[in-house]
Amino acid sequence: MAAKTLYDKLWDAHLVRQNEDGSALIYIDRQILHEVTSPQAFEGLRLAGRKPWRIDANLATPDHNVPTTERAGGVDEIVDPVSRIQVKTLDANCDEFGITEFKMNDQRQGIVHVVGPEQGMTLPGTTVVCGDSHTSTHGAFGALAHGIGTSEVEHVLATQCLIAKKMKNMLVRVDGELGAGVTAKDVVLHIIGVIGTAGGTGYAIEFGGSAIRSISMEGRMTICNMAIEAGARVGLVAVDDTTIEYFRGRPFSPSAEQWDAAAAAWKELVSDEGAQFDTVVEIKAEEIQPQVTWGTSPEMVAPINALVPNPDAESDPVKADGIRRALQYMGLEADQKITDIQLDRVFIGSCTNSRIEDLRAAAEVVKGRKVAANVKQALVVPGSGLVKAQAEAEGLDKVFIEAGLEWREPGCSMCLAMNPDKLGQGEHCASTSNRNFEGRQGFGGRTHLVSPAMAAAAAVTGHFTDVRELMQ
Amino acid sequence: MRKFTQHTGIAAPLDRANVDTDMIIPKQFLKSIKRAGFGPNLFDELRYLDEGQPDQDCANRPLNPDFVLNQARYQGTSVLLARENFGCGSSREHAPWALDDFGIRAVIAPSFADIFYNNCFKNGLLPIVLPEAQVDQLFKEVEASEGYELTVDLERQVVVTPSGEAFAFEVDNFRKHCLLNGLDDIGLTLQHADEIKAYEARRRQEAPWLFDAIK
User: Fold this and answer.
1) Of A144, A270, B151, B182, which one has the fewest beta carbons inside 10 Å?
2) Residue B50: which domain range?
3) Whether the Cβ atoms of residue A84 and residue A76 lie closer than 8 Å to each other
4) How confident is the model at residue A28 (pLDDT cuts 50, 70, 90)?
5) What's the rounded Cα separation, in Å, for the pair B175 and B75?
6) For position A21, what pLDDT does the model report?
């Protein structure tokens, strides 16, 4: 039998029907629903008089709009009326159709891409979709996972399938050992800097190599999460013992009787020796430094000790124009030091970096230090109620609060500023999120993407600082 | 879904690469639970000088005179010319909904982000990929001549300029068929319900842990 990539195996295992025109029907094992991209899908079902195909394949939780401040008053006390309607609509739709939902004040509530794996809803070898582009996160577990639009959310609800076309295979191999202070976030920002924001368009990217294998499940999720920022809807990491161990004892994991059969099946979820990739990118782990984005696209990234680029040095006129426009929006000068960029706010959270390991890394840096005077606000927003509880059990909340950071309730928060957490015009933010697009974190806001440790270092020094200097 | 067969309309050039979905429709407008009404907030941050709020009357907001779709000569635009990686970023279908609600019927670019490209077809909006050199030529022509119109013919798979020059484009057969006939994907898929059920029965045997776990 021909050698297959992990993506080929996952595709083949879910193929319901292959049409002659190249399109296919693939089976979807899991769908996660949230309040922003589902209301029109449920409305579509109702209008057509359709029912969900399979209730037990779905899980819902509100995350994008929920306030991260005190919310004991429940959904009725969400101040923004449109946000309130959206959260209430999700609750009503899930109640009507019988879909399991972790409502806003359920301790299991959180960001969809934190909750799915945490509950064992996402499992190796599954297909996972959600009306959110960062669904690529779940590929960290050897699952075929990608974002879909609302029409497709409705399609999956109604048919348990998607009409899809097979993607191409790309392997990004990171070999070697990561330096101290260099995290999964730096790895993926570096990769995006190398292949570009559209470099992965049309591909499923498998991240492999010894450096990836040495990274924890949390870190692998961070990497796959940002595959979409390189243009790839799908990011993947092969299953190994780290993956399998992650799922022991999770609520929706296989039962004790099913476990051995499941684990045996999962072990097959690796690319075969000699499998052919359409594109291979090789990166040396030792060359990766802590990263900071300086522009308005995730590919506009540089190592912490570099200078902001100069558009005059760029030969491609469209790119030079892009750099000029980005520098103007970001209020930066060509050739200025990244470490001279002063911060107004710091955001530690999002589906990229709000898991327990992220919070531990940030806490380690701020411990015994204080948020710098020029930083107006430094937010820590855990990815789920369970992450929050774990962090509190470890005393991380106290470390953050003592250092002057705010400790919040779980949600998407300032990553996309649909709730009240947002940047003011012209403010610079060191953010552990995934997109530095214009206006993403608030009208006129200026986002710099970094790792949790680098965000923490920026919080306590007031400007970008090589976190390795604080670790000595 | 609305059919797309052939369309002729005013073209406008949006000359920037990597136009993301946050730019197409900023997040504060995603709170609507409807599919319609996003048009006035299409490209909100590029189009207006102030910060837009949901449910606001946009008629009296200060317009950015430099933004292409605000210029008199591009009023009534229905074919948008764009640069590479158009529609990158989030999966929000509100982006094609906003373009459609504004009156855009086709977008022409050297490349699109995957999810956005896919979402367009679900909404009767046609994304067309042409080689960079041809897109460049169209940018030059539209800027040089006021009232410049393009004809998009899906049946023949060509974009035709006012001088009659035709540029061929590729489109997936299945998507073309659905768009030409205004077909509902879900209805088509449900014609294969027996195959889905057969697959599901097999899957239940092979991976029983994937069933009845989420309660």
Assistant:
1) B182
2) 6-171
3) yes
4) very high
5) 30
6) 83
- Chain A hits for B17, CB-CB cut-off 8 Å, are 318, 322
User: To the nearest whole percent, how much of chain A has pLDDT over 70?
Assistant: 100
Domain A291-470 CATH class label: alpha beta
- Is A412 annotated as belonging to a binding site? yes
| Structure confidence at residue A419 as a pLDDT band (50, 70, 90) | confident
**pLDDT score at B27:** 93
Q: Are residues B158 and B72 in the same domain?
A: yes
Average pLDDT over residues A324-340: 98
pLDDT at A472 over 90: no
> Rounded mean pLDDT of chain B?
96
Is residue A1 predicted with pLDDT exceeding 90? Answer: no
CB within 8 Å: A25 and B123: no
Residue of A nearest to B177 (CA): A21
Q: Are residues B89 and B189 in the same domain?
A: no
Give the CATH number for residue B113.
Answer: 3.20.19.10
Q: Nearest 5°: CA angle at A213, between A210 and A219?
A: 125
Give CATH 3.30.499.10 domain extents, chain A: 1-288, 291-470
Q: Which of A25, A152, A437 sits opposite B22 (nearest CB)?
A: A437
Total number of domains constituting chain B:
2
Alpha helices by DSSP H, A375-437: 385-393, 396-403
In this structure, the answer to whether residues B132 and B34 fall within a common structural domain is: yes
In this structure, the answer to whether residues B47 and B83 fall within a common structural domain is yes
Per-residue pLDDT reduced to its tens digit, B55-98: 899 999 999 999 999 999 999 999 999 999 999 999 999 999 99
Residue numbers of chain B with a pLDDT score lower than 70: none
Does residue B34 sit within a domain? yes
> Are the beta carbons of B118 and A152 separated by less than 8 Å?
yes
How far off is chain A from B95, nearest CA to CA, in Å? 10
Q: CB under 8 Å to A433, separation ≥6 — which residues?
A: A347, A349, A350, A352, A353, A414, A415, A416, A441, A447, A449
Instruction: Let me know whether B95 and B147 are in one domain.
Output: yes
Same domain, B149 and B204: no
Residues of A in contact with B54 (CB under 8 A): 82
Task: Answer whether A205's CB lies under 8 Å from A167's CB.
Answer: no
Best CA proximity match to A132, nearest among A188, A62, A198, A180: A62
B120 with B188, same domain: the answer is no
User: Does one domain contain both B102 and B51?
Assistant: yes
When pLDDT is cut at 50, 70 and 90, the band that residue A237 belongs to is very high
Judge whether A183 and A219 are in contact, CB under 8 Å.
Answer: yes
Contact call for B114 and A233, based on CB within 8 A = yes
Our measurement of the distance from residue B89's CA atom to the centroid of its chain's CA atoms, rounded to an integer in Å, reads 14
